[in-house]
Amino acid sequence: MSETTTEPTSPRLPEPFVMVVFGASGDLTRRKILPAIFQLWCRNHLPESAAVIGYSRSDKTDESFRTELCDSMRDELSCHRGLIDDEAWEAFASRIFYQRGAYDSPDDFAALGKRIETLNAERNVPGNCMHYLATPPAAFADIIENIGAASLARRGQTDPWARVVIEKPFGTDLRSARDLNRIARSVFDEDQIFRIDHYLGKETVQNIMVLRFANSIFEHAWCHDYIDHVQITAAESLGVGARGGYYDRSGALRDMVQNHLMHLLCLVAMEPPSALTAVAVRDEKVKVLRALRTIPPLCAASGVVRAQYAAGSIDGREAPGYRQADSVPADSRTETFVAFKAHVDNWRWSGVPFYLRTGKCLPRRCTEISIHFKDVPRVLFNRPPAGPLRPNVLTIRVQPDEGIALEFQAKVPGPAMNIKPLEMDFGYHESFGGAPPEAYQRLLLDAARGDATLFTRSDEVEAAWQFVSPIIEGCSQDTDNLLQYAAGSWGPKEADELIEADGNQWHLR
């Protein structure tokens, strides 16, 4: 049998640049950002002269910062990829520097600018700079404004360039998102702003477009004529841990629905873009968000399932309730679980419900999208004695066991007409000889190359908040609508009733 493959492509090497990481002492920098940069450097995806400056208020030297990173990076990388190479780390560490400073101090940012100039001269870097905001959101505005005041934004310039990468959450509601967009665009041009959500860097998420638009067998049936409904589940087995104080100010709606789930919904529901460019892809995602049927506050209060986990057990271990977590008020009304039904009011998806749910302290960690096709006609096999048959389901596993599975019906060998559902299953590990790279690697490389396709544009952020904000408003008005579920369960029974009211059931592989 002959095999046809496309020619592999290598990522375009970015121009030499300096990356400034604000929030250098934070957990995100140690666990995700610096390990991702190190892996990119080891794989020769970064220019030899690239450098990293960590910026925070802590009192450190270059050497003490490097030592801290080395210790935390060994812990992080050894969990996923084995021991790090000491020689490679020593070479990379010589490219890491530290600058102490406050986020609201113009003088400290002026000193940062001089440090960047010195490094550029020493390493023969042309002046390109990527600013990464890995701080609490409250510091975003101060950092952006001081970058501008220190003339580090280079607005309107392409040579040398400057870019800013902003972590989520981007705002806490529509008004705050608009305010932050206004501040960011007062200092940077839109094409300099990279709003990051690590979900978009996951290989399986990126593969949704390939699955749809590179395979006519799927795209032909990707509409209301053939699809009965769509389910999106983002489940976490852990509780809030030490993040109780932060989480209690956000909750599942702000922490997961407004960004992660909306991105997944857009990629499933979008129309084919005219080209694989940032503008074309993001235009189609925004159209989906604008086509979402608004859930008015009164409907949200009664139709959106919100719940908070209580004490229970996960994998045989006792798990305390959310209100027992550090920094969580004893009377907290913050949801840790959300389930609701959405509709995309356009031609392709007319009448097709999208069921979304997310929660903490659920039985296992998994993110899946399942496309449920319509029943075959109630004739031939889909009636007694062989039927009724289960409909075909296409499952996209985003994490942790990345892959795609298609469930279909087949005859069991033997003289009787017995039919059994089977699966065709594709897994990344089995097919490509290993787990896909960490999402931050792809996103950081794209930001360094100036490719914004996998980042969120300002109008997309605001359109997502336009949909989610009325839900938050409605739920906050009804303080009695917060349910309870035991840690280790799949949420409250009301979440099951939500989907069962339409004759469906939640589906997970």
Keywords:
509 residues, alpha/beta, Rossmann fold, Dihydrodipicolinate Reductase, domain 2, 2 domains, nine-stranded mixed beta sheet, six-stranded parallel beta sheet, globular, disordered N terminus
**What general outline do the C-alpha atoms trace?**
globular
Report the CATH superfamily of the largest domain. Dihydrodipicolinate Reductase, domain 2
**Average pLDDT level:** 89
Q: In what range is the share of β-strand residues?
A: 15-25%
How far apart, in Å, are the first and last alpha carbons? Answer: 32 Å
Helix content: 25-40%
**Low-confidence spans: pLDDT under 50, at least 5 residues?**
1-7
| Radius of gyration, in angstroms, nearest whole number | 24 Å
Structure summary, number of beta strands = 17
| CATH fold annotation of the largest domain | Dihydrodipicolinate Reductase, domain 2
Structural class assignment: alpha/beta
Q: Briefly, what is this?
A:
The protein is an alpha/beta fold. Helices cover 37% and strands 20% of the residues. Helix 6 (174-187) links the parallel strand 5 (162-166) and strand 6.
Model description:
- This protein has 509 residues and is of the alpha/beta class.
- The protein has 2 domains: 18-167, NAD(P)-binding Rossmann-like Domain (Rossmann fold); 200-500, 2-Layer Sandwich (Dihydrodipicolinate Reductase, domain 2).
- The chain contains 16 helices and 17 strands.
- It has helices spanning 27-42, 62-80, 86-93, 106-123, 140-149, 174-187, 203-213, 216-219, 244-248, 251-269, 278-291, 297-303, 428-432, 439-449, 458-477, 493-500, and strands at residues 18-22, 51-56, 96-100, 129-133, 162-166, 193-195, 227-235, 305-310, 312-314, 317-319, 337-343, 353-359, 366-373, 393-399, 403-411, 419-427, 482-486.
- Strands 16-15-14-13-7-12-11-8-17 form a 9-stranded mixed beta sheet, sandwiched between helices. Strands 3-2-1-4-5-6 form a 6-stranded parallel beta sheet, with helices on both faces. A two-stranded antiparallel sheet has the order 9-10.
- Helix 5 packs parallel to helix 6, helix 10 (251-269) packs across helix 11 (278-291) and helix 10 (251-269) crosses helix 15.
- The longest helix is centred in the C-terminal third of the chain and has 20 residues, at 458-477.
- The protein is globular.
- The two termini are 32 Å apart.
- Residues 1-7 have low confidence and may be disordered.
